[in-house]
Amino acid sequence: MTDILFTPVRLNERLTLKNRILMAPLTRCMADEALVPTQQMVDYYARRADAGLIISEATIIRADGQGYPNTPGIFTQAQIAGWRKVTDAVHEKDGKIFAQLWHTGRVAHPHFWGGDEVIAPSAVGVDGTVPRMRELSYLVPRAATAAEIAQLVEDYAKAAENAIEAGFDGVEIHGANGYLIDEFLHYETNKRDDEFGGSPENMVRFPLQVVDAVIARIGAERTALRVSPAAYFNIEPDTRDRAVFDLLLTKLDERELAYLHGGIFDDSVHYDYLDGKVSEYLRRHSRHTLVGVGGYTAEAAADAISEDKFELIAIGRPFIANHDYVVRVREGKETKPYSDELLPVLY
Ligand code: FNR
Ligand code: 8K6
């Protein structure tokens, strides 16, 4: 029984979702050379407009936030105009769509914007090479100065404003998966000894400044956040991170976010230092509307929502394999399995 997935949810005065199935943010590397969404992307998102909410693929807030080829941006007029076609097509089909705002921090590569350095909280490099571009090794970043951090906060706020101009219903700040914001929240990547590092109070400062700047620009009803309390991707866990996330979630409870979203690929994993799964940890420490994600079938998601483990479910890989995922679930039809071979084609 998946009926509960098809009950509407009121997030706040501005936003009510027609069902509880969110399309998870999914990087597809299909924007054009100017990082503008293409007509193919318009069609891809429009075909999935029956989701309660689409979260766009991660979209960079400025040129030096790029870490993968052909990821879209939202910092030029051409990019805003390209996204406007996507949001119009989704709205035409009675859908809703948020933009996921992204800066990859130390996972960025200057190859993409023709620079020569990368900035991050601290000069700690990530191992390895850019996916699909094996010749590009990651650089050791330079620690951002306080003035650069202030500029980043402003650039997130400006990107949020641009997203509204492009017709998005709101934004999800990408604070997960080892990218810039997440790098401030973990001891492996944050070794600063100024007001942005060294203690939980200091480590949550930049993430909260971004949240507050975005809220000030576009309103809390249209602002959401994704976080990864369990470091599992691009970053090494440290048990001291727990206190940072405890504080972050306490402080977020003083704000009114549209929702809080866990950043995880497999929510069945138990993390000792979180005393449970990511969704369980977030549920215990936050009063916000929670999005569960990570390896869920529709049936498992419906059970979890019935048991009040979270209110909304984000579906990632199955939405790549099934543009008609929502219809298939509603009609009790089988869904096609995901495989990585589906990634090179948008349909
Ligand atoms: C992702 N994921 C992801 N997460 C994110 O916050 N921003 C992004 O742009 C992407 N991009 C992305 C691309 C691809 C190809 C995959 C498979 C995943 C993670 C995604 O949102 C989700 O958390 C996971 O896929 C787990 O959910 P499923 O796939 O098990 O439903
Ligand atoms: C967020 C943008 C990422 C760009 C490409 C992402 C592709 C991800 C493909 C799957 C990666 C799985 C990583 C899972 C790690 C789990 C470790 C326990």
From TrEMBL:
Pfam families: Oxidored_FMN
Encoding gene per record: nemA_1
Ranges of residues in domain NADH:flavin oxidoreductase/NADH oxidase N-terminal: 5-335
Single GO term (MF): oxidoreductase activity
Keywords: Oxidoreductase
PANTHER family with a match to the protein in the record: NADH OXIDOREDUCTASE-RELATED, OXIDOREDUCTASE-RELATED
Protein's name according to its UniProt entry: N-ethylmaleimide reductase
Record flagged with keyword Oxidoreductase: yes
EC nos: 1.-.-.-
